[in-house]
Amino acid sequence: MREFTFHRAASVADLPAGATIIAGGTNLLDLMKLEVIAPEALVDITRLPLDRVEPEGEGLRIGALVRNSDLAAHPTVRRDYPVLSRALLAGASGQLRNMATTGGNLMQRTRCPYFYDRRMACNKRDPGAGCAAIGGVTRNHAILGASDHCIATYPGDMAVALRALDAVVEIDGPSPRRVPLADFHLLPGDTPHVETVLQPGEIITAVILPAPVGGQQRYRKVRDRASYAFALVSVAAVVGMDGGRISHAALAFGGVAHKPWRDPEVESLLLGREPSDALFHEAAEILLRPAQAHGENAFKIPLLRRALMATLRDATGMETTA
Amino acid sequence: MTRHLRVDGPTHDDRLDQMAQGVIGQPLNRLEGPLKVSGRATYAAEARPRDLAYGVLVQAAIPAGTVLDIGDAPGALAVIQDKRMIRYAAQGLDQKGPTSGPDRVEYMGQSIALVVAETFEAARHAAQTIAVRYKPEEVPVDPESVTPELPPKKQSAAGDVDKAMREAAFALDRVWRTPSQMAAAMEPHAAIAEWDGDHVTIRAALQMLSSNRKQMADALGIRESKLRLLSPYVGGGFGSKLGINAEAVAAAIAARELGRPVMVAMTRQQVFDLAHRRSETRQRIRLACDAGGRLTGIGHDVLVSTLPGSEFTEPVAQATPFTYQAAHRQVVHAVARIHRGCAGSVRAPGEAVGVTVFECAMDELADMAGIDPVDLRLKNIPDVEPTTGRPFSSHKLAEALREGAKRFGWSDRRPTGQRAEGEWFIGMGMAAAVRVNMLQESRARVTLVQDGHAIVETDMTDIGTGTYTILGQLAAEMLGLPPDRVEVRLGDTQFPPASGSGGSFGAASSGNSVFLACEEIRGQIAKAMGCNEADLTLQDGMARAGNIVRSLSELVNGTITGEGHLQPGKTEKSHRQATWGSHWAEVAVNRWTGEVRVRRMMGVFACGRVLNEKTARSQCLGGMSFGIGIALTEALEHDPRDGHAVSRDLAEYHIPTHADVPALEVHFLPERDAYVGPLQAKGLGELGICGAGAAVLNAIHNACGVRVRELPATPDKIIAGMDP
């Protein structure tokens, strides 16, 4: 770990220019120890009053410092946004969830092993260096939206649920703004080191959830062990039914792309239709049409199809039995 | 006085059963448990001698070649590249240091130098960023890309397996693959070295101190008498601390050079690079049987890998020659010399993957022949070791199978794919458990003090297995003392040299030496009582012979010391010694995602005398959990281009979590094995893993009809065999 200065911010206005923000530190400290990143200055924001969950209009405003454990257990979240609660509880471990914050979790870096290994070429760590993951061990890599420069995935669970809930990220800084979560994370393109729209000097202060939409909410995460493993694929689903037809469909996917993935074409196909295997197959076809395997991760294509089928059957009241 | 015993024949008198204290076998809590859970047990990296400096290993960034030069490390105390530094860890029981010379690189991540600084953080920064120039070489890293060696001593054949296959009523010929696996002990490897003149003391995380001392003295070029090793507490070993590793050698060299104590602790990632891996295996199994399910041919062709020049190779087919009967048999053991990091002993080397795969093959054969898997095994249990005609020291496989089937409810098992709950297919599977048994030379000293307490001293280690407790129990039983009146001192080479912890031989080997030392003391007490030792009863600090009763404080003038020395002897050759058992698993397989959840699991084990029912059970729980890991989750992945370990932390190397392990059930079959020394106890630590994964994999097949032959059975491999 390289030496760094440490400053504890007293207010949102008190963020030193160029400093890296630390909240729970569950990812940042690992990266610093391995010198994947080596910030010269850290600013600790954990004393800022950003740890509240409060109503905003008909929706909910979640402070950036609300811990994953607290958010998962919040009665309003459990009642009105159960997909979020389920996604949070599917992530990491109890200890990590006690430390990890809402804002920090959005900023979580990929788990690509080549990104973590300074001996390996990585365009995220060292723009222009190349991507050692391509042609390497690619089990946890992207099948959607990747580029020749980077095939890493966004690893989190919470953001996948937020994507299905149409959450908005509140950003403070020189010019405060609100950015839909859909636009917050970026695809890698030829600048995989730029992962979000957050600019230097900006800070996430909250995540805003719109009014609850009800419906059946599911978070199905498939992983290599029962706990403390990143998603191979995951599906966050908010599905409403009206008179035997699908009246609302919001589907977001984790573990498959550089950002929580969502495909409006899939959802519009489902709207107004009666649930059936044929329909869900068609939805999966649309979802996976642009999918591209990189060696070992080819299994994610059938796995995502299966996870989607199971989730849609479950959420629309069809049988999922073996 | 030292009482020596070479185990040349059977011990039929159940001496321990005749003792009066009644503590041996009891499920006593671990003696050092309170120290561990309250943080007072100091592990290797937790001592803080004055003026301690911190070293971090510099690692090679190429798979093979020569180190030309290493740059400066501004802010560091020293950059040390010493020709005595070792390239990889010593193997268990090695009597010499491993290959030295850090300027030659044999695998990616190899230790090539040490940076020492005033803080760990500064040393790590320097080690991670120091400039190194290499002359790289092209080397093979894929075991299937090279022509393997066929060491003549490791091949065996009798009859003609090909012919047996041709003439069989049922013949199975399949290939399985298991990936590299790591011990992944909780405590990373660490050492603190401190010199006093020409004498060095090293606190280290090691399993076998007496051979570690020989290895270390050889590596450093000093006399053994100038070297003291301390490993009173070790946070798990599982084979990864059998031999000295780069950190301890480097710490000793640096401490000498800097004239101050130096600690070198591996980071978690370094443990995955530098500790021995279990070799990946390719196993072709051929089984031929007649219409009644009697085996006529057994073939086990194995391909494993390790570095060029390294002697240890995973003994995959170790149990194949004696587990089942068949007239025609062949073992092929091929070794690929590649540059993936050194292979060594990891959690039951051999049987952990060999029995697991073999027992999957037996399940497939049972399926093919339409015979119940339990019956197939029962039909093929040999009376004597098939390849040599030697008798077994004991044989409990049939009993373990029958007992397990009854306890687990095997008769409720449905045909393949016939049981489901919600979106989960449910299935049951079983496997035999077998592991070779070994004894190693071991010495201990026991001192009985006049005030009625005793001290046990041996350089044996307790790597979390319960050695402190069982040795204390043994001395308490033999000397008639309450267990809290026995102090056990371990993990210090100033004590008599013991077997160390490895190969499941620790408890029986060191236990027998304590038994012998206590017999010596009992002899002296008997003399003071004027009776034969056989007529002496010791209980609660009192000695009794006939109608004479005296307290130990009357009989012991100051102290009585006895030493025990156990050596393996003729029974090692005259009898096939092994431990036996059976594994049972019920799993759920998700119809959509291929996820597997183990719902219940049971093991029935026979290991001779059980010394402490609780610590023995705990060992089996750990072994069975590792079995779940082998079956479902664990794989050290290697980069296909340079062979480096990719999954190199505990988030990516998936040992089973609590959520992966259901409540496990363990049953012991009562047994006294006469051919393994007066304790009549055999090794247990590894038996629980041997075959456990097969029960899980066979249950997956019973649930959903999918056979996974490339381990671990992760969701991708399950869905590949499922209907869309």
Q: Can you tell me the CATH topology of the largest domain in chain B? A: Aldehyde Oxidoreductase, domain 4
Shape of chain A: globular
Structural class of chain A: alpha+beta
From the spread of the alpha carbons, the general shape of chain B counts as: globular
Describe the structure.
The complex is a heterodimer of chains A (322) and B (724). Chain A is of the alpha+beta class and 322 residues long. Chain A has eleven helices and twelve strands. Chain A has helices spanning 28-33, 68-73, 75-80, 82-89, 94-99, 102-106, 158-164, 181-184, 264-270, 277-288, 300-315, and strands spanning 5-8, 20-22, 41-44, 53-56, 59-63, 168-172, 177-180, 203-209, 216-223, 231-242, 245-254, 261-262. In chain A, strands 4-5-8-6-7 form a five-stranded antiparallel beta sheet. A four-stranded antiparallel beta sheet of chain A has the order 9-10-11-12, sandwiched between helices. By secondary structure, chain B is an alpha+beta fold. Chain B has three domains: 2-41 and 440-568, Aldehyde oxidase/xanthine dehydrogenase, molybdopterin binding domain (Aldehyde Oxidoreductase, domain 4), CATH 3.30.365; 42-346, Aldehyde Oxidoreductase, domain 4 (2-Layer Sandwich), CATH 3.30.365.10; 347-438 and 574-721, Aldehyde Oxidoreductase, domain 4 (2-Layer Sandwich). Chain B has a seven-stranded mixed beta sheet with strand order 4-6-2-14-11-12-13, with helices on both faces. In chain B, strands 1-27-21-22-23 form a five-stranded mixed beta sheet. The mean pLDDT of chain B is 97. The A-B interface holds A 1-2, 33-35, 111, 113, 117-119, 135-137, 139, 220, 222-230, 232, 299, 302-303, 306-307, 309-310, 320-322 and B 61, 108, 121, 124-125, 128-129, 267, 269, 420-425, 591-595, 597, 632-633, 637-641, 644, 646-648, 651-652, 654, 656-660, 704, 714-716, 719-720, 724.
